[in-house]
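Why do we care about 3D structure at all? Because function follows from shape, and shape follows, mostly, from sequence. That is the central idea of this module. The next example makes it concrete: a single protein chain, its amino acid sequence, and then its structure expressed as tokens.
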Amino acid sequence: MSDPAIEYDPAVRCSDCKACCCKLEVMLMGEDDVPRRFMQQDKWEGWIMARLDDGWCAALDRSTMRCGIYERRPVICRDFQMGGSDCISERSDQTVVVLRQRTVL
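And the structure:
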């Protein structure tokens, strides 16, 4: 649900989402109903979303770059607003990383 007090960038849409947030560590809360195969324990024995060797969330469908468990996604993912300040920041960080990788190659 969008908070009217927070500014969003309307230029960010699902159709051009880069799923940057799917590289962030996501802590699971008691009310989350994530399928067990997408969960792992961190070094403090808390539960987080599992990530594959490529660093992306295990629930991310690589062919569409969309959440494979969208209806059961964690509360933290539900609260992460597309086009919000955190989203824009992650997209910017990912762009900088890609540009750095291109200049190194």
